[in-house]
Design goal:
It is flat, with a radius of gyration of 28 Å. It is of the alpha+beta class. The termini are far apart. Strands 1, 2, 3, 4, 5 and 6 form a six-stranded antiparallel β-sheet that branches. The relative contact order is 0.14. The chain is built from six helices and six strands.
Length: 184
Amino acid sequence: MRVDSAVLHRFSFRAPLVATVACAVVALSGCSVFQGQPAPVVPVTADAGAQTSTVTQLQKFLWVFSPYRPDIQQGNFVSQEMLSQLKVGQTRDQVKFILGTPLLTDIFHGDRWDYPFYLARGNGELTSARVTIYFKDNVVAKFDGGNLPTEKEYIARIAGAPKKTEAAVQKKEEAGSASIKINK
Protein backbone atom coordinates (compact mmCIF):
# COMPACT_ATOMS: atom_id res chain seq x y z
CA MET A 1 0.00 0.00 0.00
CA ARG A 2 1.47 3.32 -1.07
CA VAL A 3 0.98 6.57 0.76
CA ASP A 4 0.34 9.53 -1.47
CA SER A 5 3.13 12.13 -1.45
CA ALA A 6 0.57 14.91 -0.76
CA VAL A 7 -0.34 13.26 2.55
CA LEU A 8 3.30 12.87 3.53
CA HIS A 9 3.96 16.49 2.64
CA ARG A 10 1.17 17.72 4.93
CA PHE A 11 2.23 15.41 7.75
CA SER A 12 5.87 16.45 7.56
CA PHE A 13 4.93 20.11 8.22
CA ARG A 14 2.25 19.47 10.83
CA ALA A 15 4.21 17.12 13.09
CA PRO A 16 7.02 19.57 13.93
CA LEU A 17 4.48 22.37 14.39
CA VAL A 18 2.38 20.30 16.79
CA ALA A 19 5.50 19.14 18.64
CA THR A 20 6.73 22.73 19.01
CA VAL A 21 3.38 23.95 20.35
CA ALA A 22 3.20 21.00 22.77
CA CYS A 23 6.73 21.69 24.04
CA ALA A 24 5.92 25.39 24.52
CA VAL A 25 2.77 24.57 26.52
CA VAL A 26 4.66 22.08 28.69
CA ALA A 27 7.51 24.55 29.25
CA LEU A 28 5.16 27.37 30.22
CA SER A 29 3.14 25.18 32.56
CA GLY A 30 6.35 23.91 34.12
CA CYS A 31 7.48 27.49 34.71
CA SER A 32 4.20 28.34 36.40
CA VAL A 33 4.49 25.33 38.66
CA PHE A 34 7.91 26.36 39.93
CA GLN A 35 7.62 30.15 39.84
CA GLY A 36 3.91 30.27 40.65
CA GLN A 37 4.34 28.51 43.96
CA PRO A 38 4.16 30.98 46.80
CA ALA A 39 7.07 31.27 49.13
CA PRO A 40 6.72 29.25 52.30
CA VAL A 41 4.86 31.09 55.01
CA VAL A 42 7.10 32.62 57.60
CA PRO A 43 6.03 31.55 61.09
CA VAL A 44 3.61 34.12 62.42
CA THR A 45 4.21 35.68 65.77
CA ALA A 46 1.18 36.45 67.86
CA ASP A 47 2.10 40.13 68.14
CA ALA A 48 2.09 40.65 64.38
CA GLY A 49 -1.58 39.80 63.89
CA ALA A 50 -2.79 38.70 60.49
CA GLN A 51 -0.23 38.73 57.70
CA THR A 52 -1.08 38.49 54.01
CA SER A 53 1.31 37.90 51.15
CA THR A 54 0.16 38.77 47.64
CA VAL A 55 1.13 37.46 44.23
CA THR A 56 2.95 39.33 41.49
CA GLN A 57 1.54 40.19 38.06
CA LEU A 58 3.76 37.52 36.47
CA GLN A 59 2.42 34.88 38.82
CA LYS A 60 -1.15 35.95 38.03
CA PHE A 61 -0.41 35.60 34.30
CA LEU A 62 1.26 32.20 34.66
CA TRP A 63 -1.67 30.91 36.73
CA VAL A 64 -3.57 30.51 33.45
CA PHE A 65 -1.34 27.55 32.58
CA SER A 66 -1.48 25.86 35.97
CA PRO A 67 -4.10 23.44 37.27
CA TYR A 68 -7.02 24.51 39.45
CA ARG A 69 -6.10 25.22 43.06
CA PRO A 70 -8.91 25.43 45.60
CA ASP A 71 -8.90 27.75 48.59
CA ILE A 72 -7.58 25.99 51.69
CA GLN A 73 -8.51 27.21 55.14
CA GLN A 74 -7.01 25.63 58.22
CA GLY A 75 -7.23 26.49 61.87
CA ASN A 76 -9.47 28.75 63.90
CA PHE A 77 -10.49 32.09 62.44
CA VAL A 78 -10.49 34.66 65.25
CA SER A 79 -11.87 38.05 64.30
CA GLN A 80 -11.22 41.41 65.92
CA GLU A 81 -14.77 41.32 67.34
CA MET A 82 -14.13 37.97 69.01
CA LEU A 83 -10.83 39.13 70.46
CA SER A 84 -12.43 42.29 71.85
CA GLN A 85 -14.82 40.11 73.92
CA LEU A 86 -11.87 38.39 75.59
CA LYS A 87 -10.91 39.84 78.99
CA VAL A 88 -8.20 39.08 81.52
CA GLY A 89 -9.67 36.99 84.36
CA GLN A 90 -12.07 34.87 82.25
CA THR A 91 -12.14 31.11 82.79
CA ARG A 92 -11.14 28.48 80.24
CA ASP A 93 -14.79 27.66 79.56
CA GLN A 94 -15.56 31.31 78.83
CA VAL A 95 -12.61 31.51 76.44
CA LYS A 96 -13.75 28.30 74.73
CA PHE A 97 -17.25 29.78 74.37
CA ILE A 98 -15.93 32.99 72.77
CA LEU A 99 -13.11 31.66 70.56
CA GLY A 100 -13.97 27.98 70.18
CA THR A 101 -11.86 24.95 70.95
CA PRO A 102 -8.15 25.72 70.59
CA LEU A 103 -6.36 24.01 67.75
CA LEU A 104 -3.13 23.62 69.71
CA THR A 105 -2.95 22.62 73.32
CA ASP A 106 0.53 21.55 74.28
CA ILE A 107 1.17 18.98 77.00
CA PHE A 108 4.36 20.82 77.93
CA HIS A 109 2.64 24.21 78.06
CA GLY A 110 -0.63 23.42 79.80
CA ASP A 111 -1.33 27.08 80.54
CA ARG A 112 -1.22 28.17 76.90
CA TRP A 113 -3.76 27.85 74.10
CA ASP A 114 -2.91 28.66 70.50
CA TYR A 115 -5.39 29.56 67.78
CA PRO A 116 -3.46 29.50 64.48
CA PHE A 117 -5.18 30.38 61.22
CA TYR A 118 -4.01 29.79 57.65
CA LEU A 119 -5.83 30.66 54.42
CA ALA A 120 -4.23 29.78 51.09
CA ARG A 121 -6.23 31.21 48.21
CA GLY A 122 -6.16 29.46 44.86
CA ASN A 123 -4.60 32.53 43.29
CA GLY A 124 -1.53 32.34 45.58
CA GLU A 125 -2.46 34.77 48.34
CA LEU A 126 -1.53 33.54 51.79
CA THR A 127 -3.08 34.85 54.99
CA SER A 128 -1.95 33.63 58.37
CA ALA A 129 -2.67 34.72 61.92
CA ARG A 130 -2.10 33.46 65.42
CA VAL A 131 -3.81 34.22 68.73
CA THR A 132 -2.23 32.92 71.92
CA ILE A 133 -3.99 32.81 75.29
CA TYR A 134 -1.95 32.43 78.49
CA PHE A 135 -3.61 31.13 81.66
CA LYS A 136 -2.59 31.32 85.29
CA ASP A 137 -4.65 29.39 87.87
CA ASN A 138 -7.19 28.51 85.11
CA VAL A 139 -8.02 32.14 84.30
CA VAL A 140 -6.71 34.32 81.48
CA ALA A 141 -3.50 36.06 82.51
CA LYS A 142 -2.76 37.66 79.12
CA PHE A 143 -3.40 37.15 75.43
CA ASP A 144 -1.64 38.09 72.21
CA GLY A 145 -3.40 38.62 68.92
CA GLY A 146 -2.30 41.80 67.30
CA ASN A 147 -4.08 43.38 64.37
CA LEU A 148 -6.73 40.91 63.23
CA PRO A 149 -9.28 41.41 60.43
CA THR A 150 -12.94 41.98 61.18
CA GLU A 151 -15.54 39.45 60.10
CA LYS A 152 -16.65 41.71 57.22
CA GLU A 153 -13.07 42.00 55.95
CA TYR A 154 -12.64 38.23 56.11
CA ILE A 155 -15.87 37.59 54.19
CA ALA A 156 -14.87 40.21 51.61
CA ARG A 157 -11.51 38.45 51.19
CA ILE A 158 -13.15 35.09 50.57
CA ALA A 159 -16.27 36.06 48.62
CA GLY A 160 -15.02 39.26 47.03
CA ALA A 161 -16.38 42.76 47.39
CA PRO A 162 -20.18 42.93 47.47
CA LYS A 163 -21.65 44.23 44.24
CA LYS A 164 -24.88 45.67 45.57
CA THR A 165 -26.20 45.25 49.02
CA GLU A 166 -29.89 45.04 49.78
CA ALA A 167 -29.69 48.30 51.73
CA ALA A 168 -28.37 50.17 48.69
CA VAL A 169 -31.09 48.69 46.48
CA GLN A 170 -33.73 49.56 49.07
CA LYS A 171 -32.48 53.15 49.34
CA LYS A 172 -32.64 53.47 45.59
CA GLU A 173 -36.21 52.16 45.54
CA GLU A 174 -37.21 54.55 48.33
CA ALA A 175 -35.67 57.48 46.50
CA GLY A 176 -37.56 56.52 43.36
CA SER A 177 -40.88 56.14 45.17
CA ALA A 178 -40.36 59.40 47.08
CA SER A 179 -40.09 61.36 43.85
CA ILE A 180 -43.48 60.13 42.67
CA LYS A 181 -46.16 61.60 44.87
CA ILE A 182 -49.82 61.51 44.08
CA ASN A 183 -51.88 64.35 45.51
CA LYS A 184 -55.63 63.95 45.76
